[in-house]
Amino acid sequence: MLDENVVLEIGQQAVWVMIKTGAPTMLVALVVGLIVSLIQALTQIQEMTLTFVPKILAMMLTLVVAMPFMLATLVQFTEALFARIGGQGL
Q1: Tens digits of per-residue pLDDT, 31-55?
Q2: First-residue to last-residue Cα distance in the chain
Q3: Residues 70 and 33: beta-carbon distance below 8 Å
Q4: Mean pLDDT value across the chain
Q5: pTM score, whole prediction
Q6: 51, 40 Cβ separation under 8 angstroms
Q7: Residue 38 burial by CB count (10 A; 0-12/13-18/19+): exposed, middle or buried?
Q8: Apex 70 CA angle, 36 and 2, nearest 5
Q9: Of 90, 86, 85, nearest to 10 (Cα)?
Q10: Interacting residues of 81 by C-beta distance below 8 A, sequence separation 6+
Q11: Nearest-angstrom CA–CA distance, 37 and 19
């Protein structure tokens, strides 16, 4: 039977996997957003669509580049989870 420590450990690993897979895209969005905001402040152009288009393009490019890492991380976590389930006899 599963005890509380195993469940907490699996939950902690799941949170770390979410952070590892989401961090590259979020960091790129943050950096691009800061750069666009700085350019908007310097030029006093306050167009709302100007902030979204560069962010979306940068995030899509980041997803294309980081997808092998993200997929490998998810596969590794899933295999470890299945091995743990198989080892518990559940």
Answers
A1: 999 999 899 889 888 787 788 899 9
A2: 8
A3: no
A4: 90
A5: 0.78
A6: yes
A7: exposed
A8: 125
A9: 85
A10: 10
A11: 25
